[in-house]
Automatic annotation (TrEMBL):
GO terms of molecular function: cysteine-type deubiquitinase activity
Regions of compositional bias (Low complexity) in chain numbering: 101-117
Phylogenetic lineage: Eukaryota, Haptista, Haptophyta, Prymnesiophyceae, Prymnesiales
Organism for this UniProt entry: Prymnesium parvum
Record field: compositional bias (Polar residues): 128-148
Gene Ontology biological process terms, A to Z: protein deubiquitination
Domain OTU residues, every copy: 1-79
Region (Disordered): 90-158
Pfam families: OTU
Cited PANTHER family: OTU DOMAIN CONTAINING PROTEIN, OTU DOMAIN-CONTAINING PROTEIN DDB_G0284757
Superkingdom of origin: Eukaryota
InterPro entries in UniProt: OTU_dom, Papain-like_cys_pep_sf, Peptidase_C85-like
Protein name: OTU domain-containing protein
Amino acid sequence: MRKERDFFGAMFDGDELMAYVERMGCQRTWGDELTLRAAADCFGCTIHLVTSTESNWYLRYEPQTGTPRKNLFLTYVYPIHYDAVSPMANSGEVARPKPKSPYSPAAKAPSPSKAPKQVAPRPRSLTPKRTSSPARGTQARPSLQPSTPGKPGGPAKM
């Protein structure tokens, strides 16, 4: 942000930019969208952000110059918290994309010893029962908001 004062300075009055940069430079300081923009430029990466808001559920920050070298995936629960997202893999193993279809040429048929096992259906007594039906046109939706309040202003722990 210091190197790109002309770009980032347009969002601040006077010396506010340098005060902001000093605050963001402190350990354990929560960042925001501006710091994501700066991180994309600084590290030469594309930052993909999936949010909990319907209108802007996906945002992408690309470096202003050069070709992005890496991708960084984050989630943002509005208006509280950013989290990093990483591919799932066994320890020490690089995650690889799975074939698009089990019928694609890249997909190998499993050997008989590794074939999936048949699973018996769940007994009726263990099947959850609906105690009451929701009113027509309404559905219970899971809350995307955290149960504990956090710092306001769209923080990101950097």
